[in-house]
Amino acid sequence: MENINTIGRRKTSIARVYVKPGKGQIIVNERDLNDYFKSEILQTTVKQAINLIKADGQYDVTVNVEGGGNKGQAEAIRLGIARALVNINAESKPALKKEGLLTRDSRMVERKKPGRRKARRRFQFSKR
C-alpha cells in the first residue's frame, strides 16, 4: 500500500492528509501532534477515527492544514483521516459513518450584511 491522499474541510480550514503504514506517528504542519495541538481535547478529536476502528499504531499520518482556528483545523484533519481509512479498508465505513465522522460539517460563518452591525444584529434604534 502506498500513500493515501485525502482532503478534509471544516469552516474555513482545509487539511490535506497523507496516510501510509507505519508506527502511529501523526505530523501536523511538520510538527508533532502534541506540539501543534496543546489541548488534549483537540488531540483526541484528531485521533477519534483511528481509535474507533482500533488502528492506532498501524498508520503514519502527515497533514498540511491551513485556515481557520484550532477546533476547525482539528475537525478538518479528523474528516481527512476518516476518508483515508475508508480508502484503505472499506469495511470500516459503517462504523465511521455511524459516528458521523464521514459527514462534512457544512456550517460556515454568515457574511455581514450592509446596514447591519454584524450578520443579523441591527444598529441600536433611537426613538429621539
Provide a quick synopsis of the model:
With 128 residues, the protein is an alpha+beta fold.
Percent helix: 25-40%
Average the pLDDT over all residues and give the rounded result.
Answer: 94
Order of helices and strands: EEEEHHEHH
Reported CATH architecture: 2-Layer Sandwich
Largest sheet: 5 strands, mixed
| The CATH top-level class label | Alpha Beta
Query: Can you list the strand order of the major beta sheet?
Result: 1-2-5-3-4
Total strands: 5
What is the CA-CA span between the terminal residues? 73 Å
Radius of gyration: 18 Å
Structural class: alpha+beta
Which shape, going by the Cα principal axes?
elongated
Kindly give the count of domains.
1
What fraction of residues sit in β-strands? 15-25%
CATH topology: Ribosomal Protein S5, domain 2
What does this structure look like?
It contains 4 helices and 5 strands. The model has no long low-confidence stretch (mean pLDDT 94). A hairpin with a 2-residue loop joins strand 3 and strand 4 (31-32). Helix content is 33%, strand content 23%. The protein has a 5-stranded mixed sheet with strand order 1-2-5-3-4. It has a single domain, classed as 2-Layer Sandwich (Ribosomal Protein S5, domain 2), CATH 3.30.230.10. The protein is an alpha+beta fold.
